[in-house]
Amino acid sequence: MTTNQQADPLIGKLVDGRYRVRARIARGGMATVYVATDLRLERRIALKVMHGHLSDDTVFQSRFIQEARAAARLADPHVVNVFDQGQDGELAYLVMEYLPGITLRELMREQRRLTISQTITIMDAILAGLAAAHNADIVHRDVKPENVLLAEDGRIKIGDFGLARATSANTATGQQLLGTIAYLAPELVTRGTADARSDIYALGIMLYEMLVGEQPYKGEQPMQIAFQHATESVPRPSVRNPGVPEQLDELVLWATEKSPDERPDNAQEMLDRLREIERQLDITPTVVTTANTPLNAHADSAELTKVLPSTMVIDEHTGPVPQPIDNATLLRRRTSKRRARGAFVLALVMLLAVLAGGAGWWFGSGPGSLVAVPAVAGMSYDDAAAALEAEGFVAIQAEDSSVAVEPGLAIHSDPAEGERIEQGAEVTVVISTGPAPRAVEALNGKTADEARAYLDELGIAVSDDDLLLYSNADDGVVINAYVTPRAGGDDVACGDGCDVFEADTARLFVSLGGLPDVTGMTAAEATDALAEKDIATKTVEEFHDSVEKGRVISTHEREGSGNWRPGDTMTLVVSKGPQPVEIPSVEGQNRDEAITSLENAGLKVEYDGRWSSVRNSCVVAQGTDPAAGNVVDLGSTVNVTFDWGEFDFSCLAGD
Questions:
Q1: How, if at all, do strands 19-27 and 14-15 pair?
Q2: pLDDT tens sequence across 211-225
Q3: In terms of residue numbers, what domain contains 505?
Q4: Are 478 and 443 contacting, i.e. CB atoms less than 8 angstroms apart?
Q5: pTM of the shown model
Q6: 3-state secondary structure of 574
Q7: 67 and 166: one domain?
Q8: Burial class (CB in 10 A: 0-12, 13-18, 19+), 616
Q9: Does residue 181 sit in the same domain as residue 56?
């Protein structure tokens, strides 16, 4: 037990004749939490005791009791259970379930940035617990990593509903605005009002912090941070951590919208979206097995959760079996090691006292006078320069492009972080200018593989879904390309070359070669030939004087224009043969008139040849066979019958 613990007057005391206080766990602004033993039920519990100076404050007493009632209404495996609430003299307390383990804050201090699997596992549990609160019309109002507990047995729970209120009483002005500033929703800063969507904003900030390893807003004063919450938009986590999937980027942006109306309405809506993302990324939230899990069950659990580390035990039948060791246990082990090193440190101090003269030289003018370069990555130049100057260095600014670091922030320093150099030395702070510009040469005419290799050298990503088109180019040759800017905006045509930026994404339009010319084929032949190219067909028919009936005259252009693509449907224009004609009436016409009328209609004319020796004006057409009005094929033969008109002997002279 530490000196601070020994000095705590409650340790060892019996509260309300039932709860024996064993040790202090944590201390906050309103209360101190102890681990205690419930003597009646013989179990360990967490005892939350309100600070003595607040016990006379009826507002805080009411808030304290309110936490008990709010949490007690929630029956959810991801919410810390509240068993009891009471008063022992001036001592107001809550009795809660004891969860040995660590907080999410401690895990993030240990790892800084969590993995995608860890983040999803923790966020799934938090959202599930908070969804139960929102469904019960309870707003937590103090969502932050310190209030998320990671138990040794793998359970993940949200607790500390000390600020919780029913959604109908959502005003939080002046001294009542107690939520941690780093997770404060804009409406709490500007209007002092909170509802379930304020919890969602805090979750979005927390999700960003798990993915990136730091909070999105920084400032020396709380009001600076609050101002940023009210006026700035949270950046995409992938700007700081390129490994963050786009779906989680969008989830963070959705949850941290400035207007509450643009956010998820409650934790359940955000949880539903998270579980869609889990399916899209093929990530299943994992749960550490409890101490009661049978040994052979580990074979079915695939991989233990990455939220807490694991170790191995040996089973005499199955061999090595993973067993959970949580971060809390690791931290306790490290504490024990530090205590064990205490005696050694004391001896070392005594030795150093003997060597004081040598130490004076070492730290005065020897190697000990060197100072480690502080970490400046992620800072603005002004902040980095201030940090370096505070250590006695001279800051020099340089610039370099970076995909991972936002423009205007430091990428690294030269000499590097942690390197020990003399005070007064120059340290170059390399500031990001963002992704490097790239001049892309013409991609048209390259093979798809050549284009991909070339773009990869430029640091430009290429999407896997090439657009495949039929064209006059050879199979596999690029015929166009478009680049989607990483920073947003319209796509850039890049087939003939373009100016873009590193980390932008290109999509290639790749030729499949040409389609067969089906003109003159029968409709069936054309359909089969195009089917081999994954082109469906439909037909329309037209009369044609020279193309045989049933053969393809031509094809229609692609609907919507552009090149034909696999899966398109092509319209074939198929010949119906020559168009039929109607036999005109020639009755009463002379010979030449009748013949001309029929031939102009596209018909062949036959008649008794003896009428050719008769003067034209003496001959009168009587009719045709087939008769006038019948419809026949173009070029059909029609017989004309003639008779005498007014006869005289001059008619026999011919024309």
A1: antiparallel
A2: 999 999 988 777 788
A3: 437-511
A4: yes
A5: 0.46
A6: strand
A7: no
A8: middle
A9: no
